[in-house]
Amino acid sequence: MVFSTLHDVSRNVAEPASLQPGHAVSAVKMCRDRGKASSKRKQGEESAFSKLTPAQQRAWLAFIRLRLRLTYEMNRQLQAEANLSLADYDVLNALRYEPEGRTQITALAIRIGWERSRLSHHLRRLEGRELVELRTAPTDRRATEITLTDQGWAEITQASTGHVELIQRLFFDGLPDQLVEPMTVALESIYDNVIERGTLPRPAHES
Length: 207
Fold this sequence. Notes:
By secondary structure, the chain is mainly alpha-helical. The chain has helices at about 1-10, 20-50, 55-80, 85-95, 105-110, 115-130, 150-170, 175-195, and strands at about 100-105, 130-135, 140-150. It folds into two domains: about 10-50; about 55-175, Winged helix-like DNA-binding domain superfamily/Winged helix DNA-binding domain (Arc Repressor Mutant, subunit A), CATH 1.10.10.10.
């Protein structure tokens, strides 16, 4: 009787979804579809990158690896030694080379290659730390003028010492002297091409 009861109950227990015939077919189809999608993605990625020659691929990957690593190391060193981020340094350093440490937001955004809105937000934070001063431009009431404060001058000057030491150690110590000139020519050529074909105009100080 007990056996009969258990037997009757077992008839009412549904098979796991994965064991049911319809679901099994669906699972197989799903696996095939995923495999096809993965294969298509792989083929798409390979075909896109294969437009570059092997030499170009090598050069581009070398540049990307270097850019990512140097960005990390420079940001880390600046934060640890000068309490500045790399973004802070880029803004303050660009201002330092403007006449009297002063320029307008649009001109500075073009010089460092930032969106104007991003730069505006960042400048507000720097202003809160008394590193820059923002005011309406006297020659154009619609424009905002940025001036590097005395504290900003002091901090960017102090930060530059450790920053340059890092550049020497990580960048130039790994670059043989005979390659400095050809690398410089190559980078200047690429930069000119970006200026010509990119979306930002040439910075005013380079005109």
